[in-house]
Specification:
2 copies of one chain form a homodimer.
Chain A lengths: L1 E2 L10 E6 L12 E16 L7 H9 L4 E9 L9 H16 L6 E6 L9 H12 L6 H7 L8 E9 L2 E10 L12 E6 L5 H14 L15 E6 L13 H23 L7 E9 L2 H13 L1 H8 L6 H8 L11 E6 L2 E7 L2 E2 L4 H8 L3 E7 L5 E8 L3 H8 L4
Parallel strand pairs in A: 4-5, 8-9, 10-14
Antiparallel strand pairs in A: 1-6, 2-3, 3-4, 3-9, 6-7, 7-8, 10-15, 11-12, 11-14, 12-13
Chain lengths: 404, 404
């Protein structure tokens, strides 16, 4: 899949912008973003399964019932969650954006991210929207990506180019997410755009299928946020015949979607709060897909393993331990474990028991930034990947005093 | 319940000892412990539900099938888990202890704790057992408690005195557990002794019932160990008529058991790896017990809340977030949250939304060592407690390089 620049504006007919409107104290930090399609688009989203849901989640769910959307408005610095007037504020945000864009507020996806339980004042948003709309451009993806960041330290933006019906198509996205990341249906905030023509039903199917193996396999700290959302808008401007069934063209679209979502998963994992390393657990030889996924996710979530990876300590017993309490039915006596990075691969466990290995070699492998934990279950043909990061002093520091 | 001294030797007819035999490099640290009853005792144990089980767990399970035991042998410094010859070594440990005590090896409870996946050499244990047996005394509980500690910084030891059938009875215990603590049926290692006369069946029932609300409600880091075990031996030397049904005397025994297990839970939580605070989440107003327990445990397990407590930051949104992803069916709009310590109580959330509170007052309350997180669900009459600790720099430090 060919990577291109432009992020959410790589697809034809999408513009974006991000500004500082005053929700955050730091004037150098964008806190309000917008993405707009020239025409109404097929739209789908998946949301957090946390019972406590941010008000914007509830409003967006309502707006997307007809499978159509044309714009995204998103603020950072305040999650608009657990506030008595949350729904009202989220609806005001939608309406103010819609009025300025001369579209229906039903076609607006609204999102918020930041601290929970502090009232979100509408005034800076209301004052900022005209400026935000005036800044919309097809090179605005970067500013929009900046506007949705909280404790993120790196911009997460990607786009790919592919062909359907002989037409050049694009799919791009921006994402944020650094802490409170343990998505259950979706991750923190991911906005995807594409110019592919696809029906709302098939778009929903593509997204719902994809996230099972991508954002749902990502964990920074085991805490499922109240405001998770992945949305996708497909405006059809690539000019292909509408994808309305599971044919070869749908497969190409799924492939494009997956290449973008996996890229964003890895970017979010590597930029986890306080992280110094990106961890990827690759499970092979499982009896079924559910087992492979359960094992991979359990390994990536272990606080003990995450701390060991921070210390570049090849403490593989913690991998076995995490597999054991995962709930997956596996034969412990067939498990092999190895660690891999750009410096090589080192097997540490064979058939469920430790084997001799060079601690020095293991240390050199584990001192790298991207670490793979290879788990072979020796049972069947299914495999899965999960992404996470190490547990560091800085994670504690960031979250010991997040609100000030 | 009257607290007395003596730990596992408070009950009549129990002796204990702990020595350094050479499994650990540090010669000042005990690494081998023994507890012995003068006569065979009713015995019961609960074990980790981790699919990967330490070899000693498998051997002990076998030995306790007849509901009888007379001695405990336990080493620290090596978990004897994920080793090809693990079972063999655990059986050797039992046999060596039994031979020296002139009892059947079937009556030995064997346990190991420490690093996973490194072969446990029998030699220092074999050489140490005669010395260990020679040191057995009714004042040996303290040395035995020292011998089972790993990253623990404080001794966990307690005993109570109570009356059944006009006889003075005792129940005491020692425990260890600091990291990899998220018990599922049991906690790291807890050894209980009592001189009450009780049938193996009723002892098993008492223990299995009690741990649901005690050790299963404890979490340091979400990692369920491979070697968790809580065992209890009841030698009947108090002279009461054998408890063999759920009568008033069983209720008194349950109360004594609960007072000892709750004490040990709080001690383990407060001494969690790197912990500066003991956290207790008290959930009231639940529709049923399962809901109360699920909510309490989810709150105590949240990495984000644990880090906030380390920073004495009243970030109550993380309490709501953890309740929301717990899986419990609750009405979010009825949830009240408050923080409490010896400095007072401060309500921070009413009916699912934030309320005004003094950050200074909250800070003073949260700077204390023992913090209670009060959650009222407003639905029914059930309540539960769960115990944990804050997430600190030192947790990361301890686990970043545990093996060296």
């Amino acid at each position: 899949m060919k990577t291109v620049s432009g992020g959410v504006c790589a697809a034809k007919g999408f513009k974006a912008a991000g500004i500082h409107c005053g929700i955050r104290k730091n004037k150098d930090k964008n806190d309000l973003s917008m993405i707009v399609s020239d025409c109404p688009a097929s739209a789908a989203a998946v949301y957090t399964q946390n019972l406590v849901k941010g008000a914007p989640i509830l409003v967006t769910k309502q707006h997307l019932q007809n499978g159509k959307a044309q714009a995204v408005i998103c603020n950072s610095g305040n999650a608009n969650t657990c506030n008595a007037n949350g729904i009202e504020i989220a609806e005001q945000m939608s309406r103010l954006a819609a009025d300025e864009l001369h579209i229906s507020s039903e076609n607006v996806i609204v999102a918020s991210t930041g601290v929970i339980g502090q009232p979100l004042v509408i005034d800076p948003i209301a004052a900022g929207i005209p400026l935000l709309v005036s800044r919309l451009s097809d090179s605005g993806s970067h500013e929009a990506a900046l506007g949705i960041m909280t404790t993120d330290t790196e911009i997460k933006e990607v786009a790919v180019e592919f062909e359907i019906d002989g037409r050049i198509c694009h799919l791009g996205g921006i994402a944020k997410g650094s802490g409170m990341i343990h998505p259950n249906m979706a991750t923190m905030l991911v906005f995807l755009t594409t110019d592919v023509a696809i029906s709302p039903e098939m778009l929903k199917k593509a997204l719902s299928t994809d996230i099972q193996g991508t954002f749902n396999m990502l964990s920074i700290d085991g805490d499922t946020s109240t405001n998770d959302m992945v949305s996708v808008m497909a405006n059809g401007l690539a000019g292909n015949a509408v994808i309305d069934r599971e044919d070869d063209r749908f497969a190409v679209f799924m492939q494009a979607l997956n290449s973008v979502t996996v890229y964003l998963c890895r970017a979010i994992a590597g930029d986890g709060e306080g992280a110094t390393k990106m961890l990827e657990c690759i499970v092979t030889g499982a009896d079924d897909l559910a087992t492979a996924r359960t094992v991979a996710k359990s390994v990536i979530c272990s606080s003990l393993l995450k701390a060991a990876m921070f210390g570049a300590d090849a403490n593989w017993g913690r991998v076995l331990c995490a597999i054991g309490y995962s709930g997956a039915k596996v034969d412990v006596n067939r498990i092999d474990v190895a660690f891999r990075s750009c410096k090589g691969t080192i097997p540490v466990c064979k058939d469920g028991s430790g084997i001799d290995f060079s601690e020095e070699e293991a240390k050199e492998i584990l001192l790298q930034k991207d670490i793979e934990i290879l788990v072979s279950l020796g049972d069947g043909d299914f495999s899965a990947k999960a992404w996470g990061c190490d547990l560091t002093y800085d994670y504690v520091k960031i979250n010991g005093d997040y609100r000030t």
